[in-house]
Design goal:
The protein is an alpha+beta fold. Helices cover 51% and strands 21% of the residues. Strand 2 and strand 3 form a beta hairpin. Helix 1 packs parallel to helix 3 and helix 5 packs antiparallel against helix 6. The radius of gyration is 20 Å and the shape is flat. The structure holds zinc ion (ZN). The site of zinc ion (ZN) has 6 residues, from loops.
């Protein structure tokens, strides 16, 4: 019991701390947000309670007593990207710079959830762009992946959204995004071979018009690939 409480507290902290950072500057605002969050959690918990009934479980047995609330808080954490603005995130970190070669951040860990089954898919994202007078803080590229990944997604759309927001905010000479991911809805249900990896790509500008640029990008993300 003691340990359960600790886990629940951890999830609660995960769910509320980033929330405060992103939306609230003062305590009054924070109290209001927390009241809203509590009512969202209450509604979601009721739904999870129904889900437990539906699968033939007894939501009143000891091990499941706090499950509806825990699931709800975990879900809020895993979908916190809905409450974050990727445009704002990038815009705040743009710098003027004359560097005009490819910038690549590869092997960005990615955890998302498929919108068809609410099951996880996870893997790596590789994000590249060729600046045209403006660069962005490197960590922000990984953060943008995270913001879009922490929503209900299909891998194809996720890949394009990352490309589009970088193209829009930086107006670079081109953007390339490749995502490689395993989908639990395929692996667990045995629809495909268990180790199958889905690869998607989205490109713009010189990554589309120049084969040598595209080849360089693909060669760089294959280097030291695990
Ligand atoms: Zn799925």
């Amino acid at each position: 019991m003691k340990q359960e409480k600790t886990l629940s507290d951890t999830l609660e902290n995960n769910a509320t701390v980033p929330y405060r950072k992103s939306l609230c500057d003062d305590d009054e605002c924070f109290e209001e947000e927390r009241a809203n969050e509590d009512s969202v959690i209450a509604n979601m918990s009721e739904a999870v309670h129904g889900l437990l009934h539906g699968i033939g479980e007894d939501p009143k047995r000891e091990g499941l007593l706090k499950t509806p609330e825990r699931v709800s808080r975990a879900m809020r954490f895993l979908t916190k990207g809905y409450r974050q603005d990727p445009r704002e995130l990038l815009t705040k970190a743009v710098f003027t710079e004359t560097y005009d070669e490819m910038v690549l951040v590869k092997d960005i860990d990615l955890f998302s959830m498929c919108e068809h089954h609410l099951l996880p898919f996870f893997g790596k994202a590789h994000v590249a762009y060729i600046p045209d007078g403006k660069i962005v803080g490197l960590s922000k590229l990984a953060r943008v992946v995270e913001v879009y990944a922490r929503r209900l997604q299909v891998q194809e759309r996720l890949t394009q959204q990352i490309r589009d927001i970088i193209q829009e905010v930086l107006s670079p000479r081109g953007v390339g995004v490749v995502i490689e991911a395993k989908h639990m809805c395929m692996v667990m249900r045995g629809v495909e071979k268990q180790n199958s990896v889905t690869t998607t790509s989205a490109m713009s500008g010189e990554f589309l018009s120049s084969q040598s640029t595209r080849n360089e990008f693909l060669r760089l993300i294959r280097m030291n690939a695990s």
